[in-house]
Design goal:
121 residues; 2 domains; 3 helices; two-stranded antiparallel sheet; MPG_sf; DNA repair; 4 strands; alpha+beta; EC 3.2.2.21
Length: 121
């Protein structure tokens, strides 16, 4: 899985990437996933994203702000963002379970399930 830590060690501030859209390297993604398709099933789910990107525990603590390998880059600002509760944290406190900390781009087919919990802010 791709979990991006967004603060210093000991502070709970991270983002789990649950889905993404291929911008390049579709053939490599298809090969790693073992599927010859261009449909969102390639990258809709955190495990699928990790497999498609070739991630392993060796990538732990990799800085995402330095060139080379895996890095985060600025992109176009999304025009229409959806929000919803996080997925798969039923064990957490009700406050955390219901927090609207899941984000997606409206109209994108590259959004992991469930979609029916997402709405306009």
């Amino acid at each position: 899985m791709l979990n991006v830590v967004a603060d210093k060690e000991g502070v709970g501030a991270a983002v789990l990437i649950r889905a993404c859209a291929p911008m390049a390297g579709l053939e490599t993604i298809q090969q790693r996933r073992g599927q010859k398709t261009e449909k969102p099933v390639l990258l809709t789910g955190p495990g699928k994203v990790g497999q498609a990107l070739g991630l392993s525990t060796e990538w732990s603590n990799h800085p995402l702000y330095t060139p080379g390998g895996l890095e985060l880059l600025d992109g176009p600002r999304p025009e229409n963002i959806l929000i919803g509760p996080r997925v798969g944290i039923e064990y957490a406190s009700p406050e955390d379970v219901n927090a609207l900390w899941r984000f997606a781009i409206a109209g994108s087919p590259w959004v992991s399930a469930p979609r029916n919990t997402l709405r306009q802010p």
